[in-house]
């Protein structure tokens, strides 16, 4: 048996309830993990609320965690009992003390990366790699606009983009968060709740606009994000913290021959080679000091609901981690 957070019906944070669930032995190609740190993401809030109905109920939410291998199923040769591993998965099951996982989803953790750091970095780092190295390959001289730049995900494109030689403009919801975004590498920060940030982006860039806008806010920012683009710029909508974006005619992209992308990180790591390549890039950037993680909220697994409430209130900066 294992303690786990079980979601039986969509709803508010109170829908996340700690229960005991059965955990069997790993089958062919699987490993049994005793988890030490579980990453909490806005994605999890979407699943809990029912905005994303991709977790069959009742089910255990959670898409990333780290821990140690307790047992190997038949045919597993890439890992050893006792080894530290991390993973992300669209099949859920992360909010638990122990779980069975396909070995193909796990990556070995480098010694210089602690368990809480890894749970704070893996999904967010892979997302940043996707944004800056896959969807729009950032190069020196680019201008990028990063929304929610003080957040657990948003800080990483700021750091990585600046390292790559881009001019980084961030947005934040308060003066305190603006300072955090600057500390994370943003050259300029706009308080987006004051409205009209596209005009400010154009003023800061002499009318050029941004080569890429990384927007995980969604409804509140989408229209202004589109207006912030340079010629041939790409709007990367990778989340919807403020709600889903309204339908948009393709002609709306024609003003500056722009592109729109809606990437999903699981698609970029859907095979072992891609997962290994991106994880290697993330771990190398961390080891070089390009990426740093700030874990501002650590809670026991049983308090997953409180963690979700804090995320949805936008009361957190940095990463949130549950400790089984």
UniProtKB/TrEMBL annotation:
It comes from the Bacteria. It is an enzyme of class 1 (oxidoreductase). Coiled coil: none annotated. The keyword NADP applies. It holds the Pfam family ADH_zinc_N. One of its GO terms (molecular function) is quinone reductase (NADPH) activity. Keywords: NADP, Oxidoreductase. Gene3D superfamilies: Medium-chain alcohol dehydrogenases, catalytic domain, NAD(P)-binding Rossmann-like Domain. InterPro entries: ADH-like_C, ADH-like_N, ER, GroES-like_sf, NAD(P)-bd_dom_sf, QOR-like. Residues 11-322 form the Enoyl reductase (ER) domain. Its EC number is 1.6.5.5. This is NADPH2:quinone reductase.
């Amino acid at each position: 048996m294992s303690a786990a957070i079980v979601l039986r019906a969509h709803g508010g944070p109170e829908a996340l309830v700690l229960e005991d669930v059965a955990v069997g032995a790993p089958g062919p190609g699987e490993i049994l993990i005793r988890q030490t740190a579980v990453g909490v993401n806005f994605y999890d809030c979407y699943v809990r609320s029912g905005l994303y109905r991709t977790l069959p109920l009742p089910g255990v939410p959670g898409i990333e965690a780290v821990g140690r291998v307790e047992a190997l199923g038949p045919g597993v040769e890439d890992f050893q009992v006792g080894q530290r591993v991390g993973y992300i998965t669209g099949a859920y099951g992360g909010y638990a003390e122990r779980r069975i996982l396909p070995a193909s989803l796990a990556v070995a953790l480098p010694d210089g990366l602690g368990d809480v750091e890894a749970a704070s970095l893996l999904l967010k780092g892979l997302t940043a790699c996707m944004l800056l190295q896959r969807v729009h390959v950032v190069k020196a001289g680019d201008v990028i606009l990063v929304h929610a730049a003080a957040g657990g995900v948003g800080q990483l494109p700021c750091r990585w983009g600046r390292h790559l030689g881009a001019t980084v403009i961030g947005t934040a919801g308060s003066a305190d968060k603006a300072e955090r975004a600057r500390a994370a590498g943003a050259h300029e920060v706009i308080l987006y709740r004051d409205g009209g940030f596209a005009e400010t982006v154009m003023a800061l860039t002499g009318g050029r606009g941004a080569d890429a806008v990384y927007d995980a806010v969604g409804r509140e920012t989408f229209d202004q994000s589109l207006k912030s683009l340079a010629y041939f710029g790409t709007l990367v909508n990778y989340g919807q913290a403020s709600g889903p974006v309204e339908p948009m005619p393709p002609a709306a992209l024609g003003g500056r021959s722009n592109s729109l992308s809606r990437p999903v990180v699981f698609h970029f790591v859907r095979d072992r080679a891609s997962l290994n390549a991106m994880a290697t890039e993330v771990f190398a950037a961390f080891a070089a000091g390009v990426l740093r993680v700030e874990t501002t909220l650590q809670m026991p697994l049983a308090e997953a609901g409180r963690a979700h409430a804090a995320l949805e209130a936008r009361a957190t900066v940095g990463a949130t981690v549950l400790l089984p």
